[in-house]
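The authors assume throughout that readers already know how a fold can be written as discrete tokens. Each protein is reduced to its one-letter sequence and a matching series of backbone shape codes. I therefore recommend that a typical entry be quoted early in the introduction. For illustration, here is how one protein appears when written out as sequence plus structure tokens:
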Amino acid sequence: MLIGDVGRPPVDVVLMERDRPLRTLAAALQSAIAGPGRLVLLSGEAGIGRSALIDRFIGTAARSARVLHGQCVPTSTRIDEPDAFGSAMRAELGTGGPPTVLIIEDAHWANEATLNLLRFLARRIAETPAFVIVSFRSDEIGRTHPLATLLGDLSANPLVQRVALDRLSPTAVATFTGGSGDGGELHALTHGNPFLLTQLLASPADGVPASVRAAAGGRLARLSTVANATVQALAVLGVPTHLDLLEHIVADARDAVVEAIDAGLLWADHMLIGFRHQLTRLAVLETVPGFRRVELHRTILAILVKGEIVGGQLDRIVEHAEQAGDTHAVQRYAPLAAAHATGVGAHQTAAEHYERALKLAGELSNPENLALLEAAAATYSLIGEAAKAVDCGRHLLAFYRETGDRAGESRTMRRLASSLWAGGRAPEARQLAVEAVVVAERQPPGIELAAAYANLAELDFCNHDVESVQRHAALAGRCDDPEIRARTTYFTCAGLLLATDRGWDELAEIRRRAFASGWDELAVRMMLVEACLATSRHDPRRAIPLLDQAVELLTDRGLGGIVPYVRGLRAGAYLQSGDWNAAETEARTVLDPDRSAMPAIAPMSVLGQLRARRDRADAWAILDAAILLCDGPDPLRLGPLYVARAEAAWLIGDDARAIAEAGRGLTQAGATPDPWISGQLAGWIYRAGGGISDVPAAEPYALEMAGDWSGAAATFDRRGLPYEAAIAKLAGRVEAVHDALAVFTAFGAESAARRARGRLRALGERWGTRPPRQTTRANAHGLTARQLEVAALLREDMTNAEIAARLFLSINTVNHHVTAVLAKLKVRSRTEVAHRIAAERGPAPSTVDKAVVASISATYGRPRRGFVRRVS
């Protein structure tokens, strides 16, 4: 053991979820100073951050103390006279001057002499004027480890205190990743171990980091042959496993498991055995030769299918069958696993099993394969995989037409119509829906005809054809089926809401009953309709809570595939509310090809519109790409896109193009256009000097085109639409235009600000018509006034709830502001905000990312410092 004086400065790193152990150490130090002495046993698994905690303690609570820092190393050094050495150590600790803190790290490597010294100090700690910290790896202290005996001897000593460091929570891991969606995956891989987390964050490539692989290899090298085989078998199994199953795979596995637990690789909970960390399992799996993996998968598969199979085992059976190359087993068990997953609400997992089974399916004439395709199509539709649902639907439709099954043909056509519409192919969807009604009418009246009419009514609603919605819903209502009745009642109510803006409570109640009745597919569509309605009607205060609820419910019910579509809508609601940074974050996340299979028109419209407002050169490239994604009339999607294109043209001063783009949008609006869509389009034509269009217009646009700019601005303000209110004020007097210019400047909307300054000059105003200097257009980090307020309160270490109370905002709004502040400052955690604001000039994003990783690595994984002197 090496011991030396240490005078370390405070370590400027972020420690997550370590406040409680730091307070415990500080309190123990104060008790030791007052007397008698104290000894703290600081434990935690390898990589948990014991050294980082000690360094922080030395740099804060122990600043006024003399610190002796020792470290155990795995050697066989002996001291034949521990009592004499212990007495010398006590004399050293009892020298006059400031209080002494003795730190002995890595006691799991302590030799017999060091353990005797610790026992000697512990027995005399009451008479020793010092504070002693002994740290060790709890995962390397097995039942027979020498330190375990010492820990038992010290358990009854009232002056010996234990402090165990826990793994990081999912919230802390998410903070390290800046709140991104990777936080959950990282926590699953590392189980919150800081060392493993930092290695993953700092690793430039995918897969297991080399340092983690080396650490796992070192522990494997200390195991016996049987223990190695057992650990490898468990790695291939992939999940915590009952010891009985392991013993069927590897002989003498019971003793081998005990050995691996003592080596810190595995944990045991009664008879359940698993790896301490998923990342360690992956590192071990890499050591298993390919042929041996196949052998193990075959062995495991044979064991699993030998006895009675319960639902929870089906996923594992399919996984092992696939890895073993047993296509017959995959074909047999994948549909069963999919059906079980659907029954428990794991729809994404069901879709994965259906995809495996479909690759091996034979001719559709086989009833089992036909049922497989039907079930797969329904699942793909439910999770938002429109393209796959369409592919299944086309195969089914061809089969039913060939065999003359009219009921199957009609059913498949209406389901295929829904999938086509979800995939952005509205004209073909409408045509198929009409054909489904025609085919169903040739059969005796029944539920199939009612379902076809109900499906047509839903598509009518999407086209804002309220009259057709009511007519087709009434025809569907002739069938006394509760689900169809709920569906037609809902869309009739939704159609009336388009014209009156009344009926929100009725829609919510019908949706709640649908969920309670188990009609998940219908209830999900209802939820999306409400959220879409609130967004399209420029009601962000209603839309954002609905969208938040939708994301939560969809995730809980295993329908994560639809979440990107909802987040696209939420991006639009954020844009309306004035939270442009949250809007951009949502839109860009949805447009990540690895995260979304849903149509991208809505988020691309938002992103293009936002880039145009911020005077970005790539605005038109985004808007032009979006328009290629829809193959025909589709007012629900194309309406907002043409609004964005008209505004983008107006912002650059191209009034003729603004009129043309808005006019094209009106041609897409259909026979009964939504007044919020047609009103916006007509409004841009009016602002660009094209006159007033004879189309339905929502109240604020109708007021503006009637010359009542003040009434229009007030209406926009009441709905929580600050940017739209400022646009309306451009038609007002000088004071109103100055107000609008202030809003545009606060938003960083330079294009709109140019229009405002031009309007002021036209009114004969000269003051305030020159653009601000480049260096003073915004604060150094581009924060809005509200975001500066939030950032200031973050520096005071206030929670989101406390910030909401202070600023009289909702929690959700504060959450969005905090996300925007972190994104603009390019930091990953709230604790870094103060340092980032204090800097006059921030580094480039890539530099910031590297700095954050370096900070975390410094906290949990840096090389040890040298010692000043040795004490023998």
Remarks:
- Confidence is low (pLDDT under 50) at residues 6-12, 594-598, 773-778, 839-872.
- The first strand starts at residue 2 and ends at 6.
- The two ends are 9 Å apart (CA to CA).
